[in-house]
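Hey, I was hoping to borrow your eyes for a little while. There's a protein on my desk that I can't quite get my head around. The fold is given in discrete form, as structure tokens running alongside the sequence. I'd be grateful if you could look everything over and explain what you see. Here's the protein in full, and shout if anything looks odd to you:
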Amino acid sequence: MGIFSNLFSKKAQPTPQVAPQPEKKPKAVIKTQRHILTNIEEHMEDIMDMVDKNEDYKLKEKDLIEDDRTDEKIYQYELNASATITPVISGGGVEQLQVFVYNTHIGNIKKNSISRVKKLLNSGNIQRIDAEVSGGNYKKLRYDSGRNEYFYDELEDAFSITIEITYREEIKE
């Protein structure tokens, strides 16, 4: 079979070469904007009906050390809820952007942020809006590496509510 062996043997098929595909770049990125609400004082009674006591606020210094909760503000109250924003229009256009949680008005977007938030609302790219407590009584564990010592503080900020707007921003090439 010497001469004819190559004639009748199965030849290995060449592996097709696939051209490398260029990396696909995402066409959009997810971003967030945070805004502290104004005018919450007028809505404090409703807000306090919505907030929950933060279970983590009960933690003692030892617990915070064990959980490695250094440099974290642990507020007495928490509010983790979805929010909606409603424009209030008057003769001159949008004057206010009111924020609602559970269909209850809890505050407004600051005047200097209205145009940015209005632009986001008009874009249709908002994925969600979350409201959270970002003020009031809080605990904080600090670590001083120079002294190799922890400090446990119970402090207070002005009570406030912050909304975080998560949105999709198109990438322009």
About this structure: The helical segments are 5-8, 44-50, 61-66, 114-123. The two ends are 64 Å apart (CA to CA).
